[in-house]
Amino acid sequence: MLIPIVLVLLAVLFTGFGQVLLKKGSKSGCNASAGFLAPYLNRYTISAYGLLLATTIISVIALQAVPLKLFYAIASLNFVVVAGLSWGLLKEEISGKMLVGIGLIVAGILVFNL
User: Fold this and answer.
1) Which stretches in the chain have pLDDT values below 70?
2) 42-51: long-range contacts (C-beta < 8 A, 24 or more apart)?
3) Whole-model pTM?
4) In the chain, how many domains are there?
């Protein structure tokens, strides 16, 4: 069952990077001359679409072996990964309330898996 758990963690990472790429893509082509579709059809957004498609495929494969409740307990790490990546790559601030929330998520996952 180690490989399916690794696949779930990979899906979490892909989701995190996909979300960061969507954020970067949403800011690409924001000027009026870029056109309506520029935020949807740039390299960042299209890369995010690819990662999120890969996440879906990986999740389906992992769910063949991982119980659904365990899958979603681990998938809740998406919040932690997205916060960390947005801080590290996008230079967004993490507030004290976010840190408390992240701590509660991690604690919940630990308690759930005891």
Assistant:
1) 29-34
2) 45/21, 47/21, 48/17, 48/18, 48/19, 48/21, 48/22, 49/18, 51/14, 51/15, 51/17, 51/18, 51/21
3) 0.87
4) 1
